[in-house]
Design goal:
single chain, 191 residues, Rna Polymerase Sigma Factor, Chain: A, Arc Repressor Mutant, subunit A, 2 domains, 77% helix, elongated
Length: 191
Amino acid sequence: MSNIQKEQELIRGLALDDKSAIESIYKDNYGLIQRLVINNSGSEDDAKDVFQEALIVLYEKSKSGVFELNCQIKTYIYSVSKRLWLKKLQQRSRYDLIENGAEEPVVVEDDMAIHEKRNSQFGMMEHAMTAIGEPCKSLLESYYIRKQNMQEIADTFGYTNADNAKNQKYKCLMRLRKLFFEQYKSDNKNG
């Protein structure tokens, strides 16, 4: 199961009040939010409150039936938590201390940009893998995901020998790269 499918399952589980989905989201994300809050003038209780509120936002979105997550759950929760925490800091009038450099805040913009760029690239690769078609998609998955050797691939796909399978894998990989980079260039022109 791909990460995207796993995350979609977690969102569905959250919408259905599945305890294991909620626990998984909590376990995978709470530490990140705890560091964000504690490193920015907060306490562990503050971190729990912020995380709880962010989880409620995600929960309500998942219940809406029209919510489509277009980034990792971690990225979404981090973004919501950051906004919630900054709002709480403003209410406490401690926001000015951080803005004026009295305390060293966590640089979240860079982290978010990296996460968003990586998510975007994974999405483009997934799109390219879908667009490449068969037998290339299955051949590349056999080699890179199932870790089959060239002889096994030759047997599975009916190539006369491992060298022919290797040549076909190379051609498929070149097509995949072309599709990926066409999408990459297109997105960077529009973005």
